[in-house]
Amino acid sequence: MPRRIPASAIPFSKPVMSGIVVALLGAIGLLGIMQWTAHTVRGHLRMASISIFPAALDVQQAVTAFEKMTRENKDAVVIQESALLGDADREAYVALSSLDSASTSLGSRYVRHQQITSLRNRIVRLRMRSTIVYGEAVRTNVAFPNQQVLAELTAETKEVQTALETLQSDLASDFKGELALIDELQRIQAILEAVVIVGVIVALFFILRSVIRATVHKRESDILYQAHLAREQERSVLRSLIDNIPDFVYVKDTGSRFVVANLHVAEVAGVKAPEDLVGKTDFEIFPQEMASAFYEDEQNVFRSGQPIYNREERGTDAAGNEIDLLTTKVPIRDRNGQITGIAGIGRDITTRKKMETALLEAERNYREIFDKAIVGIFQSSPEGRFLSVNPSMAFALGYDSPEEMIASITDILKQFFVSHKRGVEFMLTMDRVGGVKSFECEVLKKDGSKIWLTMSIRAIRQGGNVVRYEGMCEDITDRNALREQLLQAQKLESVGQLAAGIAHEINTPTQYIGDNVRFLQDAFGDLKSLLTHYERLLAAAQSRSLSKETIEDVATAVGQVDVEYLAEEIPKAFEQALEGITRVSSLVNAMKEFSHPDTKEKVMADLNHAIGNTIMVAKNEWKYVAEMETDFDPSLPLVSCQPGEINQVILNLIVNAAHAIADVMHKGGPAMGKIKVQTKRCPEWAEIRIQDSGTGIPEAVRSRIFDPFFTTKEVGKGTGQGLAISRSVVVNKHGGTIHFETEEGRGTTFIIRLPYDGKALTGKGVTA
Predict the structure, then answer these.
(1) DSSP string computed for 552-596
(2) pLDDT, tens digit (0-9, with 9 covering 90-100), for 215-225
(3) Beta strand 603-605 with 465-475: parallel, antiparallel or unpaired?
(4) Is CATH 3.90.180.10 the classification given to domain 377-472?
């Protein structure tokens, strides 16, 4: 409240009283004008600093987020990466959140509130359309959506982008307008104050000069002080906002000299406080080249009057480190439209640029690995089409390029697999377990020739549904041929090992066949001599000329031949000879069945019979060191297999068991060990167990037992291929499993499981 003026000791006349009244009224009017002006200025300052400026910053953030959303939507389609759609959706959320924040800052009474609300609704609709269109493009693996839809979406995106930029420009203009209005109010205030003061001075010039001067001076001081406090408070709030914004904010005059700068600008410029920058140019702070670039940009804005939005620039901080900036520069105009300076906002995007560079580098590295890998790499759809293949796979199958292969094979099941049954088996395995490792199959090349591949594939799922398969493959045609050669070599080695034993097994019955035949030969000579004498006796009796000498000769011949002995021994000799022949025949038949030429196609075979023949053929390997016990399940059904190769596996395991028992004997163990061969019928597979009482397998080498060329036998005994080939035959060719149970010093049991129908057991809870 204005202080009351003390009564004057000078007598006042009516004009003086009128002058005092005029002075009082003028003072009241002046005070009212000042209060109204101060209140109005504070309101506009509050609008500019608390509403418009934060809203402008939020809109700037919305513009940046919207641009990133647009870019990531397009990138998601180009590189077929659905994760980018999630990033785009998050950027859209950021843009909408920023607009909501801007709308909140402005309040519902500000005209821009409706503009922001309308723009936000357009972004929501655009976001929904983008999610549907680009999401469909990624899910269907189409490089770009329908061109008409894309054109409409692109046009809408550009319109929204333009509307965002327009909103940003409008807010900048509003900010400048508020500042200009404050200047105008201050000018009006000055005019009104001058008018009132002049009127009061004229009215009271003679009478109240001293009083008016004192009153005016006091009032002016009070008003100026209050205005100063208000402006200082508003400036403090505005400065706090500017300094705490995580971006570079500054204002320059037309000479590119700093007028206002926040703490972030001071930090990057290497000065202690923003005030140290006032009046300086970039040439006094930054390197010449960088300062020249900044200066030229600003002068272009001054000349053209056009703002610069979101330009990427390279700069240097106070420590000399290069940084990347995202800069916006907007001209500042006075009420006459003349450019008086420039306002700039910059954001440090060094980390984002590094991430983008790292992402591009990772993408290049992945592409290089994909394109230059020596093994085939591919992706395929659940519908049976290749989505991508690398050059190695395309060239291995005889195609000139990956694109040609993708275009040529439209149905993998029919055009890729040689065996349709094998292809169906592969698809069923993928459906059941979601992946397969080292799946061997024969496939067709471009020219119709055939090669063998081993494939390791996994299914990629989204929301529980398979969206694609991806995997690797390798040409193993030569390796298969080598494996067949090794298998044949193993068979030849086994035949060589068995040859002496088979010869010995056949020699024993052959010897007693020969002995009995020689006995029969001698007996036949005696009987023939006796028959000759009987013929003479018969002839003499018939001719009635039987003499005593003839009877005596016959009696002598009968005495020389032990007829009773021959009558008893000759039938035994025949039985023994026939028994020997049966034994030889059994050995020969077993050997014939064991060594029967193999076929590549599986046949239904009796495992019990095949294993029995193998045991007989290998008898010479085990009969001197072990007793053989068999326990064949009579209910075991026929099994789909290649009998020759299964025979070879059983032979390898029996020979290994015999060698393990022999090692125990050589170390002072029992004189004879035990080998037990057992078959068992299980619900989905036939199980074969070969148990020995040998040395067992040391724990240190158990993980390497099935490795090629690994053996625990002494040098010169064994090649290290038997178990490796056995595993290949059981697992790769028959889809079965082979593992062992062992205990050092007590023996080992090898367990083989073969599916009845030949379908792979992997994933059914059994161990390979």
Answers:
(1) HHHHHHHHHS-HHHHHHHHHHHHHHHHHHHHHHHHHHHHHHHHTP
(2) 666 777 778 88
(3) unpaired
(4) no
Judged against a pLDDT cut of 50, whether residue 77 lies above it is answered with: yes
Question: How confident is the model at residue 67, as a pLDDT?
Answer: 83
Neighbours of 134 (CB within 10 A): 24
Tokens representing 129? 């359309």
Judge if 245-355 and 377-472 fold alike in CATH terms: yes
Q: Domain ranges in the chain?
A: 14-236, 245-355, 377-472, 481-594, 603-755
Encode pLDDT of 380-409 as tens digits. Answer: 888 888 989 989 888 888 899 999 999 988
Mean pLDDT of 466-472: 88
- Say how far apart CA 278 and CA 170 lie, in whole Å: 27
Question: Distance between CA 531 and CA 34 in Å, rounded?
Answer: 168
Name the pLDDT band for 763 (thresholds 50, 70, 90).
very low
Q: Give the tens place of pLDDT for each residue, 413-459.
A: 888 888 877 788 777 777 777 778 777 788 889 888 888 888 888 88
Q: Which helix (H) or strand (E) holds 261?
A: strand 258-261
Answer yes or no: are the C-beta atoms of 718 and 660 closer than 8 Å: no
Measured over the CA atoms of residue 366, residue 371, residue 375 and residue 381, the dihedral's sign is positive
Q: CA 245 to CA 261: how far, in whole Å? A: 12
Closest CA to 247 of 47, 46, 71, 56: 56
Q: Does domain 245-355 have CATH number 1.10.150.240?
A: no
Q: Is the four-CA dihedral 104, 108, 109, 111 of positive or negative sign? A: positive
Which tokens hold the place of 654?
Answer: 């029996």
Residue range 560-574, pLDDT digits in tens: 777 777 777 778 767
Query: Which three-class secondary structure string do you get for 395-414?
Result: HHCCCCCHHHHHHHCCCHHH
- State how far the Cα of 555 lies from the Cα of 14, in Å rounded to an integer: 204
pLDDT band for position 678 (50/70/90)? very high
**702 close to 767: Cβ distance less than 8 angstroms:** no
Sequence letter at residue 728: S
Q: Which CATH superfamily is domain 603-755 in?
A: Histidine kinase-like ATPase, C-terminal domain (3.30.565.10)
User: What is the C-alpha separation between 248 and 245, in angstroms, rounded?
Assistant: 8
Distance of alpha carbon 337 from alpha carbon 604, whole angstroms: 97
